[in-house]
Design goal:
Number of strands: 24
Helix content: under 10%
Radius of gyration: 18 Å
Number of helices: 3
Shape: globular
């Protein structure tokens, strides 16, 4: 999951205060196997899923419009931005993400991406960096110094690339961060010099050291069956419980502070802050995967707005 930008902090206060209260789930767009979302610094919304990378805009009547970014049918997962570039993980679609993933990291200049130009060939927009040593690259996050972290869920590892500031499409790596005791790391989020991540039913954290190396992993919370992506507000993780269909916030010491009602969401895979110009500030965005690798039903397979009302 992407970093929380400073301009968003005040917006999230409203959402967090009422997260445990009532709210309305409002469909925004259909996204097969919806996996992750990114709201860029300038307010653009991108959503990843089983067959494409999508950009969501609003038309003159206020209706949301879903744009396929590329022509090919490919799976996209973790996503973030850094200095005007979009970085996301690509694999083969559907069950081939397990059988023949062919994973890579792809990079595009955000200014060159025009949602109204129609789908473009992948190699027109993106620089492609193959990831042959990874089995299932999943989560992706970038810290303020250009250290890009990728969780490989099947290998039980977290890898690091270093983005070169003189050429944002050139990376050093991957480097195995050497974290021990990991099971199936998934979502990633950075808050200052702390990397938070989910691992099976646990939330863990580690310090980001000089040069992007990681310190020992510490378990902040455990006891759930399967947690997916997460974000952070003032040092406190906000996490998707994939099985229970909830989003919850932890304290800095790992206690559950508040949580949405059970089955509020259809297998939530990521949570993000709603912000202008597309949304009213103070609500949250959640991607609903639905039944995994079943991309056509109306159970999940979408991104929704959770419009929060006071309890």
């Amino acid at each position: 999951m992407k970093n929380v930008h400073l301009c968003c902090v005040s917006l999230f206060v409203v959402a967090i205060l009422y997260l445990a209260g009532c709210g309305e789930v409002i469909p925004i767009a259909t996204v097969p196997d919806a996996e992750n979302s990114l709201i860029t610094v300038d307010g653009r919304l991108f959503v990843t899923g089983s067959f494409n990378l999508y950009e969501i805009t609003k038309d003159s009547d206020g209706a949301f419009v879903n744009h396929r970014v590329i022509e090919e049918d490919l799976y996209f997962g973790g996503i973030d931005e850094y200095k005007g570039r979009l970085y996301t993980l690509k694999s083969n679609p559907g069950l081939n993400i397990l059988l023949k993933p062919d994973p890579s990291l792809v990079i595009a200049d955000l200014q060159a991406m025009d949602p109204f130009a129609g789908p473009q060939p992948l190699d027109t927009l993106f620089t492609d960096i193959p990831l042959p040593d990874m089995s299932m690259p999943n989560g992706l996050v970038i810290d303020k110094k250009g250290h890009l972290y990728i969780s490989d869920t099947l290998k039980g590892k977290i890898f690091r690339f270093d983005i070169l500031d003189d050429d944002l499409s050139t990376l050093d790596g991957p480097f195995d961060t050497g974290l021990e005791g990991l099971g199936s790391p998934n979502g990633l989020a950075v808050d200052g010099d702390v990397l938070f991540f989910t691992d099976g039913g646990s939330v863990k954290k580690t310090m980001i050291l000089d040069g992007g190396a990681l310190g020992p992993a510490q378990t902040l919370f455990s006891g759930r069956f399967l947690l997916d992506d997460l974000t952070v507000y003032q040092g406190c993780p906000v996490v998707c419980d994939y099985v229970s269909g909830t989003v919850f916030q932890l304290s800095a010491t790992g206690e559950i502070m508040r949580e949405t009602k059970l089955e509020t969401f259809a297998f939530p895979s990521s949570v993000n802050l709603a912000q202008g110009p597309l949304f009213t500030e103070g609500d949250i965005l959640v991607t609903e995967k639905g039944v995994i690798y079943e991309p056509t039903s109306d159970f999940g397979n979408r991104i929704v707005l959770f419009e929060i009302t006071e309890p």
